[in-house]
Design a protein that fits this description.
- This protein has about 100 residues and is an alpha+beta fold.
- It has one domain (about 1-90).
- Helix content is about 30%, strand content about 25%.
- The chain contains 2 helices and 5 strands, in the order βββααββ.
- The protein has helices at about 35-50, 55-65, and strands at about 1-5, 15-20, 30-35, 75, 80-85.
Length: about 100
């Protein structure tokens, strides 16, 4: 199991950091418990891209998503550009 805290107070700390104990939490952050298949993929991404930590891999992913327009990220695949968008079950339904 990997526990990552996303700090919402950007001025004091890095936005993402790995914590060693679940009890180490605060009101200004979100704790993500990454395990099973998600942890396996995150570790594969860390190794493939050469990130120093899983938190660094997530930090990069967040920066890419923030720059994307219209909720689509484009990647190069087999000589062409492919758009990647989240599936409907991941998106909050608008009232």
């Amino acid at each position: 199991m990997l526990v990552i805290k996303i700090n919402l107070n950007y001025n004091k700390h890095m936005a993402l950091r790995v914590i060693s104990k679940i009890e180490e939490k605060s009101a200004d952050g979100i704790i993500l418990d990454v395990n099973n298949g998600d942890l396996k993929v995150l570790k594969e991404i860390k190794e493939k891209w050469g990130f120093k930590s899983e938190a660094d891999a997530l930090r990069y992913a967040l920066s890419v998503l923030r720059q994307a327009e219209n909720q689509v990220v484009y990647i190069d695949r087999e000589g062409g550009k492919v758009g990647l968008a989240p599936s409907e079950e991941l998106i909050e339904k608008k009232q």
